[in-house]
Amino acid sequence: MNFGDFGAVTPAKIEELRGRLTRLGLDLRLVEEKSVKGGGKGGQKINKTASAVQLKYPPLNLFIRCQRERSRAVNRFLALRELVDRAELVLSPSTSVRLAGYERIRRRKARRSGKKAGPPPGGPAAGP
Fold this sequence. Notes:
alpha+beta; globular
């Protein structure tokens, strides 16, 4: 895969992604890229154009498919960013932004459920 043009993506985002790639030591030459036709909602146009992007990274057995935007270049960037996120989950979980987000949501849900929770089911019976 070539780290080429990503269309309407800002240069700051591209540089941030490039930094994460080098920090994780991912080799872009091993990424297999394929443009495929989209599917789902969107009608005839989305079913005719090959704007969806599939990325495969065999060393970590990762497979990403992205079809969020109309532009193939933007979908390439989004798919590569998703690939880096998943690789970071595998290679460096302690620095993963995604894992930190999951942990934050888990703690928030635990706090909320603690506030709303009544007596545990099957607890002490009320009555004689």
